[in-house]
Amino acid sequence: MGFDLALETLTKLDGFLNSLGLPVKKDRWHEAGLMVRRAKEQREHIDHGRQLQPIENYLPGLFEALEIHKIIRAFSNDRSQALREKLSRALCGPISPLDEQPKNSEARNAMFELSLAADWKNGGADVKLGEPDIHVSFGDTKFLVECKRPFYAHSVRANIENAAHQLETTLTAPGQEDSFGVIAVSLNRVFSAGNRVCCAPEAEGRTTITNALLELVEQNKSAWKFTRFRGRIVAVTLHLAAPWEVDKRALVYLSTCKFFPTGRCEDAFRTFYNNVIKLYPS
Description:
This protein is of the alpha/beta class.
């Protein structure tokens, strides 16, 4: 996505927030818009032979701008209370990811929920926000998705267990007899404090970040465990996203995910897996 398209989307931000009754103020999302404007100015300066000047929070700002773009695209016509609440959380928190700690990580946790839901909705899925975090349906089969974004590798399993407990309770509620559960885990914070960039040639970026995810799994597979759940929880999905510098000429949003069946309700898992993989560009 180019600077002009990003700025065009971000000009809609205030109207988007106002339509949901959210006040417009200085926050992480507006700071991301400022980073895009500065980055565009920087590129114009470089094109005219001027020296590169460091921009504070440049990479996280651009990365968040890319997420904001897809969230606005997905939910521009949504006026639900669930979206309002998630956006209210996502706007807060420190601008620099280096200042993020477990006690103030709620904003980027909410961003993961919104970003994942936006990916699926922009891909054509029937998606709603709520509790659990994401409701996605494929035909007559409904999946309730609980999202977690652990801060450390050693806390991944605890986050998975917490999500499983929440889903097990929800799936036994009246009206959910035919629903299935999925646990979605972002490993972004485990992988990087927010200052790591995937540097790879254009043809190798996805392979590079996929290998990074597989390496994380291999290092921790005995501790994380993706089975031993009760009820109708059919999958754990691990997600990793990072800025990608393409041949030192462009910065784009790069993401990958891996699916782990729990061994329960295998037909439902196949329905989920076969449909979700179609939502992402090949």
